[in-house]
Design goal:
The structure holds two protein chains of two kinds.
Chain A: E1 2-11, E2 14-24, E3 29-33, H1 40-48, E4 55-60, E5 63-64, H2 70-73, E6 75-78, H3 90-94, H4 107-116, H5 132-145, E7 150-154, H6 162-178, E8 182-187, H7 190-196, E9 199-204, E10 207-212, H8 214-219, H9 224-245
Parallel strand pairs in A: 3-8, 3-9, 6-7, 7-8
Antiparallel strand pairs in A: 1-2, 1-4, 4-5, 9-10
Chain B: H1 6-33, H2 45-51, H3 54-87, H4 92-101, H5 110-121, H6 126-131, H7 141-165, H8 170-177, H9 182-211, H10 214-219, H11 226-235, H12 241-265, H13 284-310, E1 314-316, E2 320-323, H14 326-333, H15 335-368, H16 375-386, H17 389-400, H18 409-419, H19 422-434, H20 439-445, H21 450-458, H22 463-479, H23 495-502, H24 508-540
The chains are: A alpha/beta, B mainly alpha.
Chain lengths: 250, 541
Amino acid sequence: MLELQNISKQFDQKTVLENINLKINSGEIVSLLGPSGSGKTTLLNIILGLTGIDQGKVIFNDKDLSYVDMKNRGFNIVFQDYALFPHLNAYENIVYGLRNKKDTASAEEVREYIDFLELKPHLKKKIGELSGGQKQRVALARTLVTKPKLLLLDEPLSALDGVIKESIKERIKSIAKEFNLTTIIVTHDPEEALTISDKILIINQGNISQFGTPFEIINQPQNDFVKEFILRQLQIKRQNIFNLFGEKYA
Amino acid sequence: MRNAKPEMRVIFIIILLLFVAFLIAPLLVLFFRSFVTDDGGAGLSNYMASLSNSTLISAIGNSIKVSGVTAIITTALAFALAYAVNCTRICQPLKSAVKVGILIPMLIPTITYGFAIMYTFGNQGLLTKLFGRNLFEIYGFNGLLIGYVIYTLPAAFLLIHNSFKYIDKKFIIVSKLMGDRTLRSFLNTVVRPLLGALGGAFVLSFILSFTDFGIPASVGGTYDVVATQLYQAMLGSIPDFGQGAVIAVLMLFPAVAGVILLNYLERFNFHYDKFSETELTPGKFRDSFYGILSLVILLAMFSVFAVMFIAPFVTAFPYDLSFTWDHIMDVFGSNDLVSVYRNSLIVAVLTAFLGTIIAYGSALLNARTPIKGKQTVDIFSMITNTVPGMVLGLSYLLLFNDSSLKGTFIIIVLCNMMHYFTTPYLMAKNALTKMNPDWETSGELLGDNWIKTVYRVILPNSVSTVLEMCSYYFINAMVTISGVIFLVSAQTTVVASKINELQHFAKFNEIFVLSVLIFLTNLVVRAVCDIFQKRAAIYKK
């Protein structure tokens, strides 16, 4: 279980996050949803250990990790643009971490990850030859091979289009289920957040606006921000789809 | 942001110390030395003496005059060539020939230019024979002018050529469609966006000419310029360190002013983010005009250097033109000259190796780490860009004259590393900034320490840049004379400084053989570099 207690963060005297309290259960997918500049990426980086905190605590499975180095927390992240190493091929990227810790994953396990993510036909390809969805899966594989206790995804779908987006969404859900992996996703897209996650944390100007399941967010929006910026968007989208297909399909 | 790692701090401290010891300290010493009077006190007497020295004053005037004329001619020629390459439909082979041919002077020491000019335009020169009479007096203003123009043309061309890449050629078409006349179209779509670059080319050519030593050392004759005055003051019959320091400080002024001006001109440059390749409009007259013009410029340049490749292979140029290997054999048979060439190689290899490490390390800290105070590296890079080689060399002489560094290879290497730091540093910084900023974090999460990520990820992805940096350092270390003229000893003489000695014994065959040797060495290094770069590019895909 991941617990955030009273997290605050300032950059140059500007408050980016204020008194964030949060509990995430094992195996849950949680989205951090908010407009740009809301502080969601900062919160992700704080959990990862990339950004230090000014105040509060990060507790994981009853251990206080607030001042533990990023490297020693045992979490891992897939960046928005994947940060794959272009001089290595897909396979070499996937096993990159094994050079440092050989016993993290056996050859058998690596093969399982590769099969699970359907990467077998692409292993010999250079990063530049992969499509967006393939890169995303290679990056996921590279991260999963290190067996993280917590998986962080920074805007995992924003660089993908159409159908690929939906298939990666399903993939992320199945990863969390298959490996019982707590997953935290940063996104600015309400539809994405509400369709992929068990719970959504809506952040606005460094504060928690609402934390709840998709059902709760839709049916019991707690304030105007959630109504105006989150629900309104979805309603417009729904209206557009209705117009396209006609009410009878609704 | 992330915190700086201890290993980053260690590298940063090493780099800081290097720059303080071998850039800041020598320059401060030079500055203070210029105020030390003959009786050991402090005062302006050196300056008074120098400013009342009519030879020096006229030398400064000469330098300004010849550098100014050079800058005008070079800028015009460089613009014409860059325009021919970028905005006309002259045939591709000619464009390639311009792009490659124009760089040839960079592979040869400037001091050789002077002798090539003598052998071309002098009393017994190649062109003099062809025309049947002396075209003009070469010793002095004319010779300097020709030499400086050849010397500054590659740099000015590269500068303008690079700016052309950032001009959206669609504007030329838009301007045509809007009904602009030729002149108006040309001014608005080519000259105006290039204004910064043209000004930059002018300033750059001026500074390069003003501070070069090789060309006046060979073809200057009795026409005094600042560089030769500085050499006289330090290594002439009556060395006067005080006056030398003053001249060096005076030489710094235009260089400083020039760099400030360059930064100011940067504002006039246009920066288009997106532009696509566009078909150029046809123009028969334009194409033939620029085609012929670039051919003429190239041929004129080659004709000056042609003698360098002819003279060493004939018995006695220009009297006996029968082919012979004798001069080549003589040079290779002479222990003295072979060891000079070996010295040059040692210096160039060490400079390339150590210089690239320092420049790459500096760029790495600046571009990809959160270390505090990393901006200082940018300041060092601005200083190295400003200080002329002769001034730096002289500062080293003043500071390290009594130390054990005197007369060693390492002092020459250090001087070259500092002198040529800016370009490789900017190359590396540019390449490193463009790389994905999350690689280090990814590497760390996958179990790497910072050094390991640099070695396993950052370095392999910048092989091409590293090679480019190495070859830049190598080639410049091979050809530089102004930077090392004060630092070489009998044991560490390099080819360029040896040529300066050889001219007093009229050993021109040896001079040309050595120059050809430098040229070929640089050519080989460049070619090897290209091959590896191509391989790296394929490997990347």
